[in-house]
Amino acid sequence: MRAIVNQISPLRYLPLRALGRFSRSVFWGPLARMRYSTSWPLPQLPGPDWVRVRPVLSGICGSDIGLITLRPPPDSFVRAFINGPFVMGHECVGRITELGGNVSGFSLGQRVNVEPALSCSTRGINPPCRMCGEGLISSCQNIGDGQLPAGSAIGFNGFTGGAWSESFVAHQSQLFSVPGDLSDDQAVLVDPLA
Fold first, then answer.
1. Distance between CA atoms of 96 and 89, rounded to whole angstroms?
2. Which end of the chain offers a freer environment for a tag, N or C, measured as fewer CB atoms within 10 Å?
3. Measuring CA to CA, how many Å separate 2 from each of 27, 29, 55, 136?
4. CA–CA separation, 178 and 189 (whole Å)
5. What is the pTM of this model?
6. Chain segment 154-173, per-residue pLDDT in tens
């Protein structure tokens, strides 16, 4: 599939960091960490409670810009849990194209917003950590544990994919149905406004 991939490479980091002080265009040149791929593998559903989503629109977050330009975004602590290479993009509106066998309440073609955090419920951890138990899933204390590899969110790991592609996977607990009277342009703003 086609995707925009962030390839973390120590050999590129130092030259990019040094040259980036003089010109931001280096972050989009031959040394850049981002690459356009036409043959990125399609992520597989990790389990029966997962769905495949085709992005309709995807935003560009400050975290994405921080990764691209090697500058620390406000949530830079998640870098310790990034495994790569990975497909970027976590703010999106999309349509469900595949349902796992245990998914309920959603249907093929349904338009959804996706909460990107890979929290206790997505990892199969029960009982949840204190933060997830309080509904603060973006502060999950188990982003390196459970049934999934380490990774904090969709668009920041090598196994779910991200919204800067033709397809990614999400757990049914991450999905929110988009009302019919909300346009795609409006729906893509749900994550940053929330």
1. 17
2. C
3. 20, 19, 12, 33
4. 12
5. 0.90
6. 988 889 999 999 999 999 99
